[in-house]
Amino acid sequence: MQLAHVAIDHLSISAANMRNSKRAPDISDILPSVRARGVLVPLLVRPNGAPDSFEIVAGRRRYFAARTVADERGEAKPLPCAIMEDGDDADALEASLIENIARLDPDEVSQWETFSRLIGQGRTIADVAATFGITEHQVKRILALGDLLPKIREAYRREEIDTETVRHLTMASKTQQKDWLALFADPDQHAPRGWQLKQWLFGGQSISTKVALFAIENYAGVIVSDLFGDDSYFADADLFWQKQNEAIAAKRDAYLEAGWTDVVVLEPGQYFHSWDYEKTPKKKGGKVVITVSQRGEVECHEGYLSRKEARRARSNGEAGEETGTPAKPSRPELSGPMQNYVDLHRHAAVRTALLDYPGIALRLMVAHAITGSSLWQVRVEPQRAANETVAASIAGSKAQAAFAEKRREVLALLGQPDEDGPVAGGNCDDFATASIFARLLGLSDDDVMHVLALVMAETLGCGSAAVEALGNHLGLDMRGCWQPDDAFFDLLRDRDVANAMLADVGGRQVADGNVSEKVKTQKKIIRDFLAGENGRQKVDDWLPRWLKFPVESYTDRGGFRTADQWSKVQPLFASE
């Protein structure tokens, strides 16, 4: 026989249990005891074939009582179990357990006195557990009472304090215990108990380590454990939420990479009501909805559309069936790689132009410091390219070359002329910070402003609304930064857009004359106009609408993030 604590959801009723029935048993006589003290007599269980899963041979009523308490409190504690081995006799084991547990003192404080005396005589925790037929975990829970103030233990013995309150007090420092005792002893004060005590100890927000999506070892703050060993909590709620939100963002990105059309992250505390949604598979446009509770718990609901979205999808499908012609799917104006291409070129041009406006860079930096951004930790914008072709295009752009040259000038100002790489994005080294600070103290205001402008440019988020606001404010003309290249035309695969671009360079008549031609043909004609080849009149300084400031679309289909962002921020700059 082996004694252990087993999670309640890993237990089930065995068909061999003499009281096995589909009807739940009457537990009214033992429920108050289980509420107050938990399950003391171990359940008799045996493996049922599934990993870490057991069936209950004896202890069915204790199991149902524990489940009732778990439902009341919203959390299920592992239950003490005696795990049968081949050859064990169930009746003999159960009789032995009951006999042993009967020898325990009736209250836990008396049990602590007994266990402490035995430990003082050289007994081990395993010896004590075997003597009384309980698990080592239960012995540790009782011994943990020794870290409570004597007055709290005595109040617990007199049943003036419930078990849940005592468990939470084991997480309190001696000072907190004294403060709580003062409230407890004053009839005019209210001493917090149960979950309210936990809130009191943690300043209003207690978050269990069980809900963390991230690896606990990546949390640099303090973790507080109750001395019973059942629960542990994050002492720094702000740091927890920072790490948890990063993990939620990573989960969202993973869903999007897996092909889900959209991932909606609800605000903490906002509920997901299934009746407001319809189950919809991924291939039919289903989304993922991520909910976050105030306690930090995260749930992912895969494959849903709101009722309104589902009705619209069905309506579109029925309309297509009635006409006998499949409804033309609404596709984004830009493909993912093309959006990436446009974002990177716009970003490269805007941040290079920013270097000549350090006063504006200062104001943008202050705005970042107030509101924060996806990059403000501080991290350098990585400029991730969708593929090698896009990477080669941005690496060879005029803006990128100009930026690299000015970065070298700033590195020289900082006394690092031989360094290669970004100026910003250090690893929080205190000595390095002091060293850079000392260097900056010796520079003129103008030189410091140039350093500031470059750091702001390096940490300017690609594809962000800030790029749009800045490019329009500076009146940036992309013609001096961008030239049509192979990467652009390789990514141009939309026939409607290609025809609109052909109208830009060759006129509407030429575009209409080639409206039914393949994308490949229309792109070839555009390139002929730009190069002045094959009888086409050369067009200089052509700039796609996607790269202009302010940005313009070629269709009304939507799906162009840059245009959407500008439409939101444009009213803010209407007076300029």
Features:
elongated, alpha/beta, 4-stranded mixed β-sheet, 576 residues
Lay out the secondary structure:
Blueprint: E1 2-6, E2 11-13, H1 31-37, E3 43-47, E4 54-58, H2 60-73, E5 79-83, H3 90-102, H4 108-120, H5 125-132, H6 136-143, H7 150-157, H8 163-169, H9 174-185, H10 194-201, E6 207-208, E7 223-225, E8 232-234, H11 237-257, E9 263-265, E10 277-279, E11 287-292, E12 298-306, H12 307-323, H13 336-354, H14 358-371, H15 388-395, H16 398-413, H17 430-441, H18 445-458, H19 465-473, H20 486-491, H21 495-506, H22 508-513, H23 519-531, H24 561-569
Parallel strand pairs: 2-4, 3-5, 9-11
Antiparallel strand pairs: 1-5, 3-4, 6-8, 7-8, 10-12, 11-12
Helix pairs in contact: 5-6, 8-10, 13-16, 13-18, 13-19, 14-18, 16-18, 21-23
Could you characterize the architecture of this molecule?
The chain is an alpha/beta fold. Helix content is 48%, strand content 9%. It is built from 24 helices and 12 strands. A 5-stranded mixed sheet has the order 1-5-3-4-2, with helices on both faces. Strand 11 and strand 12 (298-306) form a beta hairpin. It has 4 domains: 2-157, Conserved hypothetical protein from pyrococcus furiosus pfu- 392566-001, ParB domain (Alpha-Beta Complex); 164-234, no CATH class; 336-464, no CATH class; 486-573, no CATH class.
